[in-house]
Write a structure and sequence with these properties.
six-stranded antiparallel beta sheet, alpha/beta, globular, Rossmann fold
Length: 203
Amino acid sequence: MTPRTVLEVRGSVAREGVSVRLGTWSLSEGGSMLLTGGSQDLVVRAFLGLEPDAQIMVLGAKAGSREARSVLAMAFAEFTPMPSLKVLEHLALAVRIGPPRLGRVPSFREVLEEVGLLSSANEVAANLDTDGRFQLSLAMLLVRLLPVWVVAPPISYQASIGVIERMKQALDAGVAIVFLSDSELGQALTRQSRRLDVRATHD
């Protein structure tokens, strides 16, 4: 059986004198794509549905819509935690707001250990630094098990063997993963890559 297409991308994003053409491409179940050469922040905004010129469809739903948010999980450094919740509580919330679609929910503590946050499990998540916020959003992505993942790790992020293995298992289970950084994690798991077209714009 031919894998179904779960992600369709085309259009561009532009901000502060820079335009990034996303190109036209799609991903099927179990596929992965490494995007390089563009502004990570801008492309994250496109997948969040905040850039009107980017046309991104997730399982037939427009990025940013309620339907798309129910099937798309994102891990990125600008993630904003809930102000009053602890790190561990964010994982419990992630599972409640979006029932897992693919497989069994893993142990929260195992996932926190793998992403590097176990020692902060009972700390208020809003106190995490930028790296910690990426790690928390990655942990939430790993426990939600949704069909499409967008992962934007800092270049300096070094994924544990456990994280890499979980992502390999996710790909084998049919999750489609987009990496927005030429990091070690993206290089280890990418099956195809695309260099984004970046141009200067003039106001």
